[in-house]
């Protein structure tokens, strides 16, 4: 028996359940890794398909209408049944799917992936993982070609042809050696100054390069680089030799900044925040170990134990004054 044309697809039902649970289309969209306009359009399309209004919208958020509450309850049963079916299929496919091919940008592979893979090994010790590194452009190409089950990219948006979810936030910094003239500046470097200065940069196609170029677009874009290098390690080495300023992830220079082997340059008028995303082919859902790893990237990282709080020693008693 064919399904009625009034029955929405599973993804739309999951979105409706998320809105009902979170009270906001925007929050539901963020949780599912889609834009708010796309989520709103999907809800409106579902309302047209079903033929009733599902949500009451207000400045304080969205909540189901009376008819929407009924649809939410029915949708929950459908989604739970689909999840049970998915779990059963996973169990049947377990032997074949106990491997995971991951390709990640250098920043993610070097500074975030080890912890995620360690957590995956703890949760599923039988999963065989293959990890390759590439710049963000090549990560997207490999995922689209079916050469990887899950990719991780840096950049300002999800690459075309892929779906994605933000898994972490990162910030780019401009660093120099302590001997560089910018290390002694008392005023921030402006966007115009940074754009006019030849830098040591990652190669074209890297997420780091893309974010910097977009940030400096209002100033005419960055000057031609003094040097292009293909890894954070090479960039740091170039900066420590006293070469031109280097732009790279803050994650990559934590130790060097703490030990003053490199100095972060204050900037004014330049926004260098960027999201780090997991990506997979549009229209598909990560399954098996890929879905498990994606869930682990969203789990809060454990807080490492720190030193006990410092308790200042009591001040010595003052001797009595002699009259």
What does this protein look like?
It is built from twelve helices and 13 strands. The chain has three domains: about 10-95, Arc Repressor Mutant, subunit A; about 95-165 and about 275-300, 3-Layer(aba) Sandwich (D-Maltodextrin-Binding Protein, domain 2), CATH 3.40.190.10; about 170-275, 3-Layer(aba) Sandwich (D-Maltodextrin-Binding Protein, domain 2), CATH 3.40.190.290. With about 325 residues, it is α/β, with parallel strands linked by helices. The chain is about 40% helix and about 20% strand. The longest helix has about 30 residues, at about 65-95. The strands form four sheets. Strands 3, 4, 5, 6, 10, 11 and 13 form a seven-stranded mixed β-sheet that branches. Strands 1-2 form a two-stranded antiparallel ribbon.
Q: Summarize model confidence as the mean pLDDT.
A: 86
| Named CATH architecture of the largest domain | 3-Layer(aba) Sandwich
Total DSSP helices: 12
Structural class: alpha/beta
* CATH topology (level 3) name of the largest domain: D-Maltodextrin-Binding Protein, domain 2
The CATH class of the largest domain is identified as: Alpha Beta
- What is the H-and-E element order? HHHEEHEHHEHEEEHEHEHEHEEEH
- Integer tally of domains: 3
Give the % helix.
40-55%
Rg, rounded, reads 25 Å
- Taking pLDDT < 50 over at least 5 consecutive residues as the criterion, the unreliable ranges are 301-323
Quick one: how many beta strands? 13
Distance from first to last alpha carbon: 106 Å
Shape: elongated
Strand content: 15-25%
Largest sheet, in brief, is:
7 strands, mixed
């Amino acid at each position: 028996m064919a399904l009625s044309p009034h029955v929405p697809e599973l993804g739309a039902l999951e979105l409706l359940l998320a809105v009902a649970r979170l009270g906001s289309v925007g929050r539901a969209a963020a949780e599912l890794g889609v834009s708010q306009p796309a989520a709103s359009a999907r809800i409106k399309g579902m309302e047209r398909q079903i033929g009733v209004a599902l949500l009451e919208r207000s400045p304080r958020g969205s909540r189901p209408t009376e008819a929407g509450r009924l649809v939410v309850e029915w949708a929950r049963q459908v989604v739970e049944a689909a999840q049970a079916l998915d779990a059963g299929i996973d169990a049947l496919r377990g032997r074949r799917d106990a491997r995971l091919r991951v390709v990640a940008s250098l920043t993610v592979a070097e500074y975030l992936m080890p912890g995620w893979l360690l957590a995956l090994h703890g949760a599923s010790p039988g999963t065989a993982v293959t990890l390759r590194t590439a710049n963000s452009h090549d990560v997207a190409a490999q995922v689209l070609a079916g050469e990887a089950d899950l990719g991780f990219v840096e950049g300002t948006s999800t690459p075309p042809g892929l779906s994605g979810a933000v898994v972490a936030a990162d910030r780019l910094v401009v660093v120099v050696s302590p001997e560089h003239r910018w290390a002694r500046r008392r005023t921030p470097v402006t966007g115009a100054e940074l754009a006019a200065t030849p830098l040591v940069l990652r190669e074209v196609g890297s997420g780091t390069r893309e974010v910097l170029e977009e940030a400096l677009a209002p100033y005419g874009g960055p000057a031609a680089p003094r040097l292009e290098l293909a890894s954070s390690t090479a960039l740091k080495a170039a900066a420590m030799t006293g070469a031109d300023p280097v732009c790279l992830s803050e994650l990559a220079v934590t130790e060097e900044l703490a030990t003053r082997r490199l100095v972060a340059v204050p900037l004014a008028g330049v926004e260098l925040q960027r999201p780090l995303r997991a990506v997979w082919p549009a229209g598909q859902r990560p399954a098996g170990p890929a879905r498990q790893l994606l869930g682990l990237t969203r789990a809060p990282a454990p807080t490492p134990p720190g030193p006990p709080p410092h308790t200042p020693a009591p001040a010595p008693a003052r001797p009595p004054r002699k009259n």
